[in-house]
Design brief:
The complex is a heterodimer of chains A (432) and B (301). Chain A is mostly helical and 432 residues long. Chain A has helices spanning 2-23, 27-53, 68-81, 83-92, 96-99, 102-123, 146-173, 180-206, 219-245, 252-283, 289-295, 305-323, 325-328, 331-349, 351-354, 373-402, 407-413, 417-431. Chain A is globular, with a radius of gyration of 24 Å. The chains are: A mainly alpha (432), B alpha+beta (301).
């Protein structure tokens, strides 16, 4: 009974303290959270309309049957996979500056995963039948369907990226060292799993022989390369915000190291894109149509052309900024480069990747797609929700990491460590 | 030690329960009566005979309320020793689209916003048949046929190796023993992966609640075929499963004024379709994709 009471008290303490942490902050914090909440509410209202009327509320058609939602989904899976970039050096090579921030990186990955899953859910026509997709309960077409693979891979990754940081934080909360023998296998597993989620997502498109634009074996490597640009870029920005608004220390050296990794990844990304463009343009078969639509327009349809060239310019500029040590190691140019990459890769890998797969369609019809207000608002709503989740997670995780929010606080106030030990020994005696 | 575990577990559990309740409550309360009634309905292939009867009774009642007609809903299974195949003589097709509208009338497809058709007729300039990039889907001349053009009707090709079935994450679409690729409209979650996978644009989606005027409804339906459908599920040509399993021709075959459309059992050496495959110059669309379609286009001799 005593231990149950203690447990209840401790749980209550945790919830109460969490609630206090989350609800108290500066003016900027309130403004940020409430604007995110407002965007979420607006997005939800628009989604409601879509849910009631059907996907007719979007601009998707039988010709372009996936649009902005799936574009965002693809991009966010890449973002989430980028957490692996932080995991590898910090855990395996004990690289000091990055190690401090890896928990935060993994929580970011988890937030991205939540957004990615939500983008798939809002894209489903029949959310009420969602349970058909659950393993064992529904009738999952595994292993034939890559979408079934994706459901498992994404949820598994979400689990890992919640489990690892929560374990480390709980240990920190109790002021104890983590049991590495227990947690290291999970950490090691999360590395191939991160590569896995993005490979599976690439294969989702890659396996469709009906869509020559996606049916290129270079797709999965290209996905990974671009993910290793955009994910770390946003993490550099987030960590600068975190060190500004909290007591957590993140050294410049860690940021510059991540930026250097981005430079390599961006080189690979541009190289793979070049290889693909060469193959398409030099052989010049009818399969080039989608590329032509994307880069120069097809039969006077050229909606995506300015976007993709803007993306190309952003990616190349950012690559140069991150390649030269002097611009990489100055915060102003570093942040400019990050911003260019975040936007550039989003265009290239979101709309610039999903839409041309449908234009022209398999029967040669050219139907141009532009997302409408509903799609934009629902998308903003999901992004806002992801950012809010991440903000709140940070609000609790950072004090635990810095030692401001711990279990010992509670112990000092209500029961001492000694009395806990005493009750424990009493229990032992009783049992014997 | 146990204390910590419980805290963590309790935390995760209450978090997930809150999230689940938060998500599902508004979802279920927002559903229509029909959606709630159908919520736990099983996959068609997993239903017992008794369950099938109950579902049919429910649907008959619902359709009667909606359309004021008594529906005959068949769940007739595939006949043995049959593999359906289709022939289409391109040299005869004049592009009149009679098949398109006969199909719509037979199969209870949505009539407007958005109009749904299971057959598409492409107009191609003479001198070109394989590259469809220059095809015209929305040609509308005073009279057909037009000089200098040929017409290519395309519908679900009922592949023997169907990419749509492979990609469906939940087995909502499958191949029947007689070769027809069927959809359980009540199982489909509307992810549209099959639309992306089909090289023939054979699958269409009800982006909104389909609309079907009461006086245009066809009450002779099959559960896997032309029964009135709901919003946001995928659908496609079934070779008129409701007709062919009762020994009739598909509606498009009957409607064609030029006799370009042929239909029969590929396993029967004396069938018309076998005669065509053996004597005429046949080809199949996108043979290089290895879909093994059962839709044979052909030319005179």
């Amino acid at each position: 009974m005593g231990s149950l009471q203690g447990l209840l008290k401790e749980t209550w303490h945790f919830y109460r303290k969490t609630l206090i942490l989350v609800t108290r902050g500066g003016k900027i914090y309130y403004a940020w959270c409430f604007s995110l909440l407002a965007i979420i509410v607006v997005g939800f209202i628009f989604y409601w309309k879509q849910h009631e009327m059907g996907l007719i509320e979007t601009n998707m058609t039988d010709q372009v049957s996936w649009g902005l939602y799936i574009a965002n989904f693809t991009y966010l899976v890449g973002m989430a996979a980028a957490a692996v970039l932080l995991v590898i050096p910090s855990y395996i090579y004990q690289f000091k500056p990055i190690k401090e921030i890896v928990v935060l990186g993994e929580l970011f990955a988890a937030s991205c995963m939540v957004m990615a899953i939500l983008f798939v859910m809002v894209d489903l026509g029949r959310l009420d039948r969602f349970w058909h997709m659950l393993p064992f309960i529904g009738s999952m077409n595994f292993p034939a369907s890559l979408l079934a693979w994706d459901v498992l891979a994404l949820n598994g990754y979400l689990f890992l990226n919640l489990f690892i940081p929560i374990y480390l934080l709980v240990k920190s909360y109790y002021g104890k060292k983590p049991n590495w023998k227990f947690i290291l296998p999970f950490i090691l597993l999360s590395i191939p799993w991160a590569v896995g989620i993005h490979t599976v997502t690439a294969f989702l498109y890659n396996g469709l022989a009906a869509r020559p634009f996606w049916n290129a074996s270079i797709l999965a490597p290209r996905f990974l390369a671009s993910a290793f640009c955009s994910g770390p870029a946003i993490i550099i920005v987030i960590f600068q915000i975190i060190r500004k608004v909290s007591a957590i220390k993140i050294e410049d050296g860690a940021l510059f190291k991540v930026a250097e990794l981005i430079a390599y990844a961006m080189f690979l990304n541009l190289f793979l894109l070049g290889a693909e463009i060469f193959k398409e343009y030099y052989s010049g078969t009818v399969h080039m149509a989608s590329f032509k639509y994307l880069f120069e327009g097809l039969h006077h349809h050229n909606e995506l052309v300015p976007w993709i060239w803007a993306a190309m310019a952003m990616n190349v500029t950012a690559f140069i900024l991150f390649l030269i040590p002097s611009t990489r190691e100055r915060l102003s140019t570093l942040n400019l480069g990050c911003l260019l990459i975040i936007v550039g890769v989003w265009i290239e890998k979101g709309p610039g990747f999903v839409i041309p797969g449908f234009v022209p369609d398999p029967l040669g019809e050219i139907h141009e797609y532009v997302p409408n207000l509903v799609e934009l608002m629902v998308s903003f709503g999901i992004w806002a929700l992801g950012l809010l989740i991440f903000t709140l997670l940070m609000k609790v995780a950072i004090p635990i990491e810095t030692g401001e929010f711990t279990h010992t606080d509670y112990e000092r106030g209500v029961i001492t460590k000694k009395s806990l030990d005493y009750t424990a020994s009493l229990h032992k005696i009783n049992k014997q | 030690m146990s204390n910590k575990n419980y805290t963590r577990r309790g935390f995760i559990r209450s978090l997930s329960v809150t999230a689940l309740a938060g998500l599902s409550l508004p979802l279920l309360s927002s559903c229509s009566r029909e959606e709630r009634e159908d919520f736990l309905q099983k996959h068609f292939l997993e239903m017992t005979e008794e369950e099938k009867k109950q579902v049919i009774a429910k649907l008959e009642q619902r359709y009667f309320e909606q359309y004021g007609r008594k529906f005959q809903i068949s769940t007739q299974e595939a006949l043995p020793e049959i593999l359906w195949g289709y022939g289409l003589e391109l040299s005869r097709c004049i592009g009149c689209r009679k098949c398109v509208y006969a199909c719509a009338n037979e199969n209870n497809t949505s009539r407007y916003t958005r109009q749904v058709h299971w057959i598409r007729v492409l107009r191609l300039k003479r001198g070109n048949l394989i590259n469809l990039e220059d095809s015209e889907h929305y040609y509308a001349p005073e009279t057909v046929p037009e000089k200098g053009f040929v017409y290519l009707p395309v519908q679900c090709q009922q592949c023997q190796n169907p990419p749509c079935v492979k990609v469906c994450p939940i087995h909502a679409t499958w191949q029947e023993p007689d070769g027809i690729v069927a959809v359980d409209y009540n199982w489909c979650i509307g992810c549209r992966y099959c639309i992306a996978a089909c090289p023939y644009k054979g699958r269409v989606f009800n982006w909104a609640e389909p609309n079907l005027p009461k006086d245009e409804v066809n009450p002779n339906v099959h559960y896997l075929g032309n029964r009135p459908r709901m919003k946001c599920a995928v659908e496609k040509c079934t070779f008129c499963i409701q007709r062919v399993r009762q020994g009739r021709y598909p509606a498009c075959v009957e409607a064609c004024p030029t006799g370009s459309r042929k239909f029969g059992n590929l396993l029967d050496p004396k069938s018309e379709i076998r005669y065509i495959i053996e004597r005429k110059r046949v080809f199949r669309l996108r043979e290089e994709l290895n879909t093994e379609s059962k839709f044979y286009y052909f030319f005179e001799s």
